[in-house]
Structures are given as structure tokens and as C-alpha cells.
């Protein structure tokens, strides 16, 4: 058998694939709205024609998108106006859908035959979800769009003491906001960033007119959507972050930080519609770098436990990891009166603190939790594929700067190969190491 395998794999090759990280960084020094986000994405390089053609897959008509270059306090960027009509259509078999003739950036009209009825002033979350699900958009765009709308629906449900399905949107149910949110999802999946970062979000100040009257900034929905997310107030006496903009960030952003490490490839500006004391623009940076090293802020949650059955830790650790904890670990300790105990530590993202505190209180016997911010410095990595006697095996290579300092074969692939050829696992690993050394 060994001789046959050798003849089949007489030529070995090392296939190297360096992973490049694409990072999108929202610099929200003047807040964010749905149209500013759409403008920034177009300014960043999303083709207007692509966006318009994708939006036509949504059964929504009665609008046109005006895209133009403009200056705001001397800063050049892109401005977007979603101009709506007052018609919607109701096809016989497709549930709720909105009706319009959409005029693209090219100036050509895309006409469709629709039955028009009077436009609803309010739409429920269930209506909008059905509208998106019945569209011809890709599954990824549908899922992201619905997730953004869900952020608003959950916030509105809490504010008005309703169920999520029965929430009726006001401003966010309008055609322009539907276009803003679905457009945000289309642009996100076009760019395909590996990570999305955001600065502390400026909310503004003063009062804003909502469907139920005047409210101090932030609007109730904005405040609820941005719970546990870093914000600041008062830079200007005007609303700078809308519920739509807040929901986009709350859905797409993985880490909020004012000190990102970027190698900026391009900067874009989405021009807002107001004249403020500061430039009313959304600035977005696109960073494309080889993934050689990464530093980010995180939170460690800790609690000392001396009265929980040991077998319960297995369930708790799995639950924490399933919810997205970066790491979970146990440390034996000795507490007062020489009581043996266990220190449970959870490493998580800055915005996930409340989620994991809730799990710890619900699933463990602890009565209190400590927390503190830490900085994670992670080695960069790339993946190489080694063509061995036992098949192709991926190897993770750790990088310090540009230098390879360690590597590790993928365990599951090695285990599969060992089972397939009925040989010890160490022989597969030794074969991988031999090929790596040969290439060096």
C-alpha cells in the first residue's frame, strides 16, 4: 500500500496562500444616517449601476435615486437623495410590495406594469420582512437587510411595549428607509470586508421630531438600538445619528474603537443634507493589509465559584463559546478560609459584555462579576497547503511581522488522513513537517 501511495503522490507541492484582511472603518465624528451610509459606500467604489440593478430585485417602486458629487465645508464626497412617489403595488401572489418607476443614474427609466393602490403610512416589521423575503435578492443580502430591520423592530417593541411582529414603523417604514437599509446590505456584500470597525458615534444634541412628538436627542429608537455601544453627545445641537444609521452600525460592526490599526487604501465621504458647525459627512476608510498582526481591545469577565458541581462547567463553557466568546478558561484558586474554588474567565468583545454577564448570572452560581478591559495582540497568520503522501493538509503559519515563527497542521485534516490510511496520527504530522522543512 505504501508503494502505491508513493507512486500516486510522487510530486509534492507547497501551495501558499497569504490572507489579506479587508477592513471597513466607520469614522462617525458627525454621526450616520441611511443616506449618508449609502453615499459613502458609493464614494468608496461600489458601482452605482450595480446598486441600482440590485435594488430593482426588491419589489419596491415609486422612487428614484439621485447621486451626485458635492462639497460640504470644502470636503468633496458623494451625496444621495432617495426621491419617492406615493404609490405602492399589491401583486396577487407576492404579499406586500411597493410600486414605482425607478430612474437610475444613467437617466434611463425601468418601467414595469404594476397595479397601484394608496400608500400605507405605516408598515409592520412582518410586512417588511415578507417584502424582502419575496424579492429576488441574494440570500445573504436578504438576511442582512432583515437583521438591520430587526434591530429597529426590537427597539420599537421595547419602547412601545409591543411584540416584535406587531411593531409598525413610521419613518423607518418609508420607501426611502427601505432603500437605505437594503442598499446598505447590498453594498456590504459587494465589498465583502473581513471586519467592520467603528469609532465612538456622535449622536448630536437638541430635539428631534418623531412620529409621537418632539424628543431630546437621541431619539428613543436610536438610544435603544445603541445600547452597550460607545456614543457621545452634544457636538452640535441637531440629530446626527438616525435610527436607520444606528441599526446599520449595530448590525455590521464587530468592534468599536477610536484607535484602529489601519493601512488606509481609500477614504470615502458620504455627504449629509444638513449644514452644521462641523462637516455633516460620514467618513469611511477601507484598509487592505496582509494579515500579519492584529491588536484589538477586549473585555475579561471573571467570577470566583466554590459551590457549583464540576460537570456544570462543561455546559457553561460550551454555551459561552457558542454565543461568541473569544475564549473561556478555568483557574484553580484558594479563597478565604482556605476554600478551594475555581476562577471562571471569559474573554469577549467590548460590546458583548452585557450578553455574557447575563449568561454567567443565569447559568452559574456566582453572585458577582468583575470586568476589565484588556488589549489583545495576536500574531498574524497565513495558510499553506502541503501536498503529502496522505493528501493535501492545511497548515497555519504564525507571523511576527513578516517572519514565520511557528506553524501547526490542521488537526482535523490530519486525523481524517490517519483514519483513512489506518496509520498513527503522528506519522501524518511528521509527513507534513517533513514537507515544510524541505521547502525551507
Brief write-up:
The protein folds into three domains: 20-290, no CATH class; 294-368, Transcriptional regulatory protein pf0864 domain like (Alpha-Beta Plaits, 2-Layer Sandwich); 380-439, Roll (Ubiquitin-like (UB roll)), CATH 3.10.20.300. The chain is 32% helix and 34% strand.
Describe the structure.
- With 440 residues, the protein is of the alpha+beta class.
- The protein has three domains: 20-290, no CATH class; 294-368, Alpha-Beta Plaits, CATH 3.30.70.1380; 380-439, mk0293 like domain (Ubiquitin-like (UB roll), Roll), CATH 3.10.20.300.
- The protein is built from twelve helices and 24 strands.
- Strands 1, 19, 20, 21, 22, 23 and 24 form a seven-stranded antiparallel beta sheet that branches.
- A hairpin with a 2-residue loop joins strand 22 (370-388) and strand 23 (391-400).
- Helix 5 (139-160) packs across helix 6 (175-191).
- The longest helix has 22 residues, at 139-160.
- It is globular, with a radius of gyration of 26 Å.
- The two termini are 29 Å apart.
